[in-house]
Fold this sequence. Notes:
Layout: H1 17-20, H2 27-45, H3 50-68, E1 70-74, E2 89-93, E3 108-112, E4 121-128, E5 133-136, E6 143-145, E7 148-150, H4 153-156, E8 166-169, E9 174-178, E10 200-201, E11 205-214, E12 220-221
Antiparallel strand pairs: 1-2, 2-11, 3-4, 3-11, 4-9, 5-6, 5-8, 6-7, 9-10, 11-12
Amino acid sequence: MDTEAQHPERDRSSLPAxxxxxxxxxxxxRSRFAVVRGFQRSRDWLPGGSFTLTGVACVLFLLxxxxxxxxxxxxxxxxxxxxxxxxxxxxxxxxxxxLGGGPARGDVVVFDGTERFGxxxxxxxxxxxxxxxxxxCDRDGRLRINGRSVDESGxxxxxxxxxxxxxxVVPDGKLFVLGxxxxxxxxxxxxxxxxxxxxxxxxxxxxxxxxxxxxxxxxTRIERSGAYGGVPAGDGTxx
Length: 239
C-alpha cells in the first residue's frame, strides 16, 4: 500500500521575528504551507488519517463506476446456457448505448423487467429491434426475421428456436428478446399477451453484457452473435 510522506511543519514560535511579517516573495511558500496544514487537519479529523481518505476515494470511485460505466450482475438461471451458466458474473457495459447507437440483434443485454417480466433485472439476447418482423418458424424450424431465416445453432446448443409459434412486429424503441436456452427461458414469447406485448423498451436496458468475469476460469468476452448479420433492416412488412 502506498504511504504518503509527511510534510514537516516548522514551529512558528522558533521563526525569527523578520519572518513573521510575510514578504511578497515568500507568499507562494506560505500558501503552500497553508494548503499542507489544511490537508493534514482534514486527515487528522478522520479516523485512520490518509488511509481513510484513500479508502473513501476508492469507494466513491467504485460507486461512480457502477452507476455510470460498468456494473456486475450474477446469472441466476439456466435461461442463457450454454453461454452463460448459473452463478456466472457478467460485467455490463453501461456506456455501450449511451455514446451512440442502440442495442443490435445478437447483443446480450441486461434490462429492468419490472412490471413486464417480473421484479428485478434479466439477461437475454436481442432477436428483434424496432421495425423488425420476427416469425417462428420457417419450414426448417428456424427463426425468420424480415424475411430472412436465421441459423442460431451456434449458441442454441440443440434447442429448437421455439416450441411456440409467433409472428410479431417490434415497435420502434422496443426490443424482442429471447433466452439462448429456449426450453428454459421465460422471454418475449411468454409475455406476448401481457402489457407491452413482451417487448422491452430500450430505455429499460441497463447495458450490454460484455464479459464473464467470474469464476476466474470462465473469464471471457461475450461476443455479439453473427447469426443475425445478414438480416435486412425491418419495416414491419416482411413475412
